[in-house]
Design brief:
Blueprint (H helix, E strand, L loop, with lengths): L1 H4 L4 H14 L48 E5 L8 E5 L4 E8 L2 E6 L2 E5 L16 E3 L10 H7 L5 E4 L1 H7 L6 E2 L5 E4 L2 E14 L2 E14 L2 E5 L17 E5 L8 H11 L3 E5 L5 H8 L6 E2 L35 H8 L13 E3 L3 E8 L4 E12 L5 E5 L7 E9 L5 E12 L4 E15 L5 E13 L5 E2 L18 E4 L3 E5 L7 E3 L6 E9 L14 E9 L2 E5 L3
Helix pairs in contact: 2-7, 5-6
Amino acid sequence: MFREMTHIHLARLLPALTLLLASCALVNPGEPAPPRTVLLSAPEIPSPPLRPAPDPRPTAVPVLTTNPPGLLARLNWQDELGERTIVFDSPEETIKLRQAGSGSLILKMGETVIHVNPWSEAADYSSLPKADQIWITDPLPEHLDLRAIREISKDSTQVIVDSASARYLEGLLSFVPLRAGALITVDGIGIQAVPAYRVEMLPDGPRLYVGNSYLASFGDFKLFLAGDAQFIPDIADLGKVDVALLTLNDISSLSPEQAAGIVRSLEPSFVLPYQYRGQEPAVLGRLLVGTGTMVLPLNATGGTAPRASGPTPDRSVAFTEIFLEGQDPEPALLEALFGAEQDGPTLLLPDLRTLAPSGLRIVYSSRDETTLLRLTNSVWNGGYGALNLVGAVEPGSETLNVVQRISRDDGEYVEESIGDFIFHAGHNHWHLDSFSIYELWSLQPNKTLDQVVASSGKVGYCLRDIRRSPEAERIDRAGFTSCSPVRQGLSVGWTDVYQYYLAGQSIDITGLADGTYALMSTADPHNLIRESDETNNGIVIYLEIQGTKVTVVDLS
């Protein structure tokens, strides 16, 4: 249930979140907000309403050779804020930014030094400038570290916190609580609190939490900093910004699709993903083709962080919670969060997931003087229903229209057109066109993804049940065992495997320099197939290439 809940569409949350915001009266700086708490029971979660198949998305990641007009970005390898500091030069001001680790950031706007969520485990703060301001987004232990706050504070430091963090700091230090919508000006910087929402599963049911994101205005420069959130409502009301910092992962923060929606609303020149765990910035880049926004990934430091020193609030009471203990939640909130109770049937959707490529080898052909990186690729179905593809037979044609047949829990099904079956002469059977793509990426000095240097192009698959997935919690009986032009697919818990020696299972790396690269394999890169989760189709591994030798390496 938790996995489903983390991908609830933002649009379904807006009615309830609007109701919440309306009830959150603004407070003056220094006035704490009263805590309110409730445990939400876990209702049944129906699938989203039927929708047509999405338009195909480009597979190329945007590579901008020039900065967007009006704002220049450069990288300082050594800076007063630490190594690998990004510097933004606007016509009026200079703004510096660096990720210290996890959700900890350091900003400098003009002469004002700002630490965001300082954490003792993330950096050696003794070597960094003291804070003029400290921004806290929520009371997670790695975001609310009293020891780090005290270490970087001076007598004049202003500590700006969300309402929930204020409860844990009472009597420990002076601070300014900033509730959703409140706006203050400190050191010439306008700071507006923007609500940030997330859902977490607890043993006794799901709970909605509220923290802060921040919109900072410094002269004509505007920066949006997303807190650790899954949902940020009313984002369009903030207007255009210059830089957006977005937490980006599909576990506890924004999915690439949600982040792309925010970027389209805010229209920043630069978006800086952080706290990501893998290929999320690359996925975001694909979604932003043609927008004019440059994606600058900060160093990936995802994962579960150990508890920091200082206040260590239990996660079951973290954030500003919604209702009084013992009261029933507002029906409108539950409906927006989990979907209204429906009399109609539920769709049983598949969920495609790619396993780490294996069987890697480099092959040189003296006949045509090409060098190929060959790989075995495996895709499995971890959803609630089979991926069932049906081809419309047209005698004499080498292309068949394909529909996805989606089962419902009432025994019926619906169909959506998703593409074509194409006859593959090299394999002598029919393939679903453009099912996978394999890309080799160069890496930036901080080991994040840079740009695609080689690609397989679109790879077609004849989808069938080859072997049971070792990661599957449920394995249905195999239902797809042949490469039929009229029926292909993947049963729940089953994997299709394309071995390295088959046609198409290669990337041409002729002329590629030796070095370390990222190999990304993505199933359904155009998102044509209807799934329960569109964000987990790809995987990234790292390779060391030396001549004709390839080795998988761990860069964590």
